[in-house]
Amino acid sequence: MSSVPAVTMILRIRRLAIGLIAAGIASGCASSGPDRLEFQSDRYDQAFEAAGEAVRRQGMPPVLTDRTGGVIEARPRLAGSVLEPWRIDNSDVEQWGANTLHKQRRRVRFEFLPVDFVPPEPKGGETLIGPPLPGSTEGELRLTDLETFDGQVELRVWVYVEREHRTGLRRGTWSRVGRTYATNPMETISPEDGTTRSQGLWTPVGRDEAMERRLLADVKAAMGDA
Protein backbone atom coordinates (compact mmCIF):
# COMPACT_ATOMS: atom_id res chain seq x y z
CA MET A 1 0.00 0.00 0.00
CA SER A 2 2.72 2.44 0.98
CA SER A 3 4.74 1.71 -2.17
CA VAL A 4 2.14 3.26 -4.51
CA PRO A 5 2.53 6.85 -3.25
CA ALA A 6 6.30 6.44 -3.30
CA VAL A 7 6.30 5.34 -6.94
CA THR A 8 3.95 8.18 -7.85
CA MET A 9 6.22 10.67 -6.12
CA ILE A 10 9.28 9.33 -7.95
CA LEU A 11 7.49 9.68 -11.30
CA ARG A 12 6.49 13.24 -10.49
CA ILE A 13 10.02 14.16 -9.48
CA ARG A 14 11.36 12.58 -12.66
CA ARG A 15 8.91 14.54 -14.83
CA LEU A 16 9.81 17.74 -13.00
CA ALA A 17 13.53 17.11 -13.48
CA ILE A 18 13.05 16.41 -17.20
CA GLY A 19 11.08 19.64 -17.57
CA LEU A 20 13.72 21.68 -15.77
CA ILE A 21 16.50 20.09 -17.81
CA ALA A 22 14.64 20.85 -21.04
CA ALA A 23 14.26 24.47 -19.95
CA GLY A 24 17.95 24.68 -19.10
CA ILE A 25 18.96 23.16 -22.42
CA ALA A 26 16.72 25.57 -24.30
CA SER A 27 18.30 28.50 -22.46
CA GLY A 28 21.81 27.25 -23.15
CA CYS A 29 21.25 26.44 -26.82
CA ALA A 30 19.45 29.71 -27.45
CA SER A 31 22.66 31.65 -26.93
CA SER A 32 25.18 31.33 -29.73
CA GLY A 33 27.97 33.54 -30.88
CA PRO A 34 31.10 33.99 -33.00
CA ASP A 35 34.25 31.89 -32.78
CA ARG A 36 36.45 35.00 -32.55
CA LEU A 37 36.22 38.78 -32.25
CA GLU A 38 38.21 41.45 -34.07
CA PHE A 39 38.36 45.10 -33.05
CA GLN A 40 40.63 48.14 -33.17
CA SER A 41 43.30 48.40 -30.50
CA ASP A 42 41.78 51.57 -29.04
CA ARG A 43 38.98 49.34 -27.67
CA TYR A 44 41.33 46.82 -26.11
CA ASP A 45 40.75 47.96 -22.52
CA GLN A 46 36.99 47.76 -23.04
CA ALA A 47 37.24 44.23 -24.44
CA PHE A 48 39.59 43.12 -21.65
CA GLU A 49 37.18 44.32 -18.95
CA ALA A 50 34.20 42.78 -20.76
CA ALA A 51 35.94 39.39 -20.94
CA GLY A 52 36.67 39.43 -17.21
CA GLU A 53 33.08 40.35 -16.44
CA ALA A 54 31.75 37.59 -18.72
CA VAL A 55 33.45 34.83 -16.70
CA ARG A 56 32.51 36.46 -13.39
CA ARG A 57 28.85 36.08 -14.37
CA GLN A 58 29.56 32.37 -14.93
CA GLY A 59 30.84 32.02 -11.37
CA MET A 60 34.45 31.79 -12.60
CA PRO A 61 36.28 34.97 -11.54
CA PRO A 62 39.68 35.69 -13.14
CA VAL A 63 42.68 34.39 -11.22
CA LEU A 64 45.28 35.62 -13.74
CA THR A 65 45.04 38.84 -15.74
CA ASP A 66 47.95 39.83 -17.98
CA ARG A 67 46.88 43.04 -19.70
CA THR A 68 50.25 43.50 -21.40
CA GLY A 69 50.38 40.01 -22.86
CA GLY A 70 46.63 39.72 -23.41
CA VAL A 71 45.72 36.70 -21.26
CA ILE A 72 42.90 36.06 -18.77
CA GLU A 73 42.68 32.77 -16.86
CA ALA A 74 39.50 32.10 -14.88
CA ARG A 75 39.04 29.97 -11.78
CA PRO A 76 37.79 26.48 -12.76
CA ARG A 77 34.22 25.61 -11.80
CA LEU A 78 32.51 22.23 -11.50
CA ALA A 79 30.04 21.60 -14.33
CA GLY A 80 26.33 21.30 -13.56
CA SER A 81 24.70 17.86 -13.41
CA VAL A 82 21.17 16.50 -13.72
CA LEU A 83 20.84 16.97 -9.96
CA GLU A 84 21.25 20.73 -10.54
CA PRO A 85 18.60 21.55 -13.17
CA TRP A 86 18.84 25.26 -12.34
CA ARG A 87 22.35 25.33 -13.81
CA ILE A 88 22.26 26.34 -17.49
CA ASP A 89 25.96 25.95 -18.28
CA ASN A 90 25.30 22.78 -20.31
CA SER A 91 24.37 23.10 -23.97
CA ASP A 92 22.87 19.71 -24.82
CA VAL A 93 21.78 16.37 -23.40
CA GLU A 94 25.22 14.86 -24.00
CA GLN A 95 26.85 17.43 -21.71
CA TRP A 96 24.22 16.88 -19.02
CA GLY A 97 24.89 13.15 -19.11
CA ALA A 98 28.70 13.40 -19.12
CA ASN A 99 28.74 15.90 -16.26
CA THR A 100 26.38 13.70 -14.24
CA LEU A 101 28.29 10.45 -14.71
CA HIS A 102 31.69 12.07 -14.15
CA LYS A 103 33.05 14.78 -11.92
CA GLN A 104 34.06 17.43 -14.45
CA ARG A 105 34.93 21.09 -14.43
CA ARG A 106 35.53 23.86 -16.95
CA ARG A 107 38.61 26.06 -17.26
CA VAL A 108 38.43 29.29 -19.30
CA ARG A 109 41.30 31.12 -20.97
CA PHE A 110 40.96 34.33 -23.03
CA GLU A 111 43.75 35.22 -25.47
CA PHE A 112 44.22 38.61 -27.16
CA LEU A 113 46.64 38.83 -30.09
CA PRO A 114 47.32 41.13 -33.05
CA VAL A 115 45.37 39.89 -36.07
CA ASP A 116 48.55 39.41 -38.13
CA PHE A 117 50.51 37.78 -35.28
CA VAL A 118 52.78 34.92 -36.38
CA PRO A 119 54.50 32.83 -33.67
CA PRO A 120 58.31 32.89 -34.02
CA GLU A 121 59.73 29.72 -35.50
CA PRO A 122 62.53 28.19 -33.38
CA LYS A 123 65.72 27.58 -35.37
CA GLY A 124 67.46 25.34 -32.88
CA GLY A 125 70.46 27.54 -32.13
CA GLU A 126 68.89 30.09 -29.81
CA THR A 127 70.12 30.67 -26.27
CA LEU A 128 67.40 30.24 -23.65
CA ILE A 129 67.42 33.41 -21.56
CA GLY A 130 64.09 33.06 -19.76
CA PRO A 131 60.98 35.24 -19.91
CA PRO A 132 61.31 38.96 -20.70
CA LEU A 133 61.35 41.23 -17.67
CA PRO A 134 58.83 44.08 -17.49
CA GLY A 135 60.23 47.14 -19.23
CA SER A 136 63.16 45.31 -20.86
CA THR A 137 64.00 45.90 -24.52
CA GLU A 138 64.61 42.18 -25.06
CA GLY A 139 60.95 41.49 -24.47
CA GLU A 140 59.96 43.69 -27.42
CA LEU A 141 61.30 41.03 -29.79
CA ARG A 142 59.25 38.22 -28.26
CA LEU A 143 56.18 39.85 -26.75
CA THR A 144 53.66 42.33 -28.14
CA ASP A 145 52.62 44.93 -25.58
CA LEU A 146 48.90 45.13 -26.25
CA GLU A 147 48.58 48.20 -24.04
CA THR A 148 50.59 50.21 -26.58
CA PHE A 149 49.89 48.20 -29.74
CA ASP A 150 48.25 50.04 -32.65
CA GLY A 151 46.20 47.93 -35.04
CA GLN A 152 43.58 45.20 -35.24
CA VAL A 153 43.30 42.87 -32.24
CA GLU A 154 41.78 39.39 -32.23
CA LEU A 155 40.12 37.77 -29.21
CA ARG A 156 39.70 34.02 -28.80
CA VAL A 157 38.54 31.99 -25.83
CA TRP A 158 39.30 28.41 -24.89
CA VAL A 159 37.00 26.46 -22.56
CA TYR A 160 38.64 23.20 -21.52
CA VAL A 161 36.64 20.38 -19.95
CA GLU A 162 38.63 18.51 -17.30
CA ARG A 163 37.73 15.26 -15.51
CA GLU A 164 38.85 14.31 -12.02
CA HIS A 165 40.69 11.04 -11.47
CA ARG A 166 41.40 9.66 -8.01
CA THR A 167 44.86 8.22 -7.42
CA GLY A 168 45.96 5.48 -5.03
CA LEU A 169 43.10 3.03 -5.64
CA ARG A 170 43.25 -0.04 -3.36
CA ARG A 171 40.91 -2.92 -4.20
CA GLY A 172 39.59 -5.06 -1.33
CA THR A 173 41.36 -8.45 -1.43
CA TRP A 174 38.92 -10.16 0.95
CA SER A 175 35.46 -9.18 -0.30
CA ARG A 176 36.67 -8.18 -3.80
CA VAL A 177 33.99 -5.50 -3.90
CA GLY A 178 35.32 -2.98 -1.40
CA ARG A 179 37.81 -0.28 -2.27
CA THR A 180 39.72 2.47 -0.54
CA TYR A 181 42.10 5.19 -1.63
CA ALA A 182 45.59 5.79 -0.34
CA THR A 183 46.14 9.31 0.94
CA ASN A 184 49.33 11.29 0.73
CA PRO A 185 49.84 12.84 4.21
CA MET A 186 51.16 16.02 2.59
CA GLU A 187 47.84 16.49 0.78
CA THR A 188 45.98 16.77 4.08
CA ILE A 189 47.98 19.86 5.10
CA SER A 190 46.23 23.06 4.05
CA PRO A 191 48.35 25.63 2.22
CA GLU A 192 49.06 28.96 3.89
CA ASP A 193 46.41 30.72 1.79
CA GLY A 194 43.65 28.69 3.47
CA THR A 195 42.58 26.71 0.41
CA THR A 196 42.47 22.92 0.26
CA ARG A 197 44.30 20.58 -2.05
CA SER A 198 42.37 18.40 -4.47
CA GLN A 199 42.43 14.67 -3.72
CA GLY A 200 42.39 13.85 -7.43
CA LEU A 201 44.05 14.76 -10.69
CA TRP A 202 42.32 16.80 -13.38
CA THR A 203 42.81 15.57 -16.93
CA PRO A 204 41.62 17.53 -20.02
CA VAL A 205 39.06 15.49 -21.97
CA GLY A 206 37.82 18.05 -24.50
CA ARG A 207 36.59 21.56 -25.21
CA ASP A 208 33.20 23.19 -24.74
CA GLU A 209 32.91 25.15 -27.99
CA ALA A 210 29.30 26.10 -27.27
CA MET A 211 30.35 27.91 -24.10
CA GLU A 212 33.21 29.57 -25.99
CA ARG A 213 30.71 31.10 -28.40
CA ARG A 214 28.41 32.19 -25.57
CA LEU A 215 31.26 33.96 -23.79
CA LEU A 216 32.34 35.75 -26.97
CA ALA A 217 28.72 36.75 -27.55
CA ASP A 218 28.64 38.28 -24.06
CA VAL A 219 31.83 40.24 -24.76
CA LYS A 220 30.48 41.43 -28.11
CA ALA A 221 27.23 42.57 -26.51
CA ALA A 222 29.12 44.48 -23.81
CA MET A 223 31.26 46.22 -26.45
CA GLY A 224 28.30 47.23 -28.57
CA ASP A 225 29.14 47.32 -32.29
CA ALA A 226 32.52 45.57 -32.02
Q: How would you characterize this protein structure?
A:
Helices cover 29% and strands 24% of the residues. It has helices spanning 3-30, 44-57, 93-101, 209-223; strands at residues 37-40, 62-66, 71-74, 77-78, 104-114, 152-166, 169-171, 179-181, 200-207. Strands 1, 2, 3, 4, 5, 6 and 9 form a seven-stranded antiparallel sheet that branches. A two-stranded antiparallel ribbon has the order 7-8. The model has no long low-confidence stretch (mean pLDDT 76).
Number of helices: 4
Mean pLDDT: 76
- Percent range for helical residues? 25-40%
- The total tally of domains equals 1
- H/E series: HEHEEEHEEEEEH
Instruction: State the low-pLDDT regions, or none.
Output: none
The profile of the biggest β sheet is: 7 strands, antiparallel
* Distance N to C terminus: 64 Å
In terms of structural class, how would the helical and strand content be classed? alpha+beta
- Estimate the strand proportion: 15-25%
State the total count of DSSP E strands: 9
Radius of gyration: 23 Å
Query: What general form does the structure show?
Result: globular
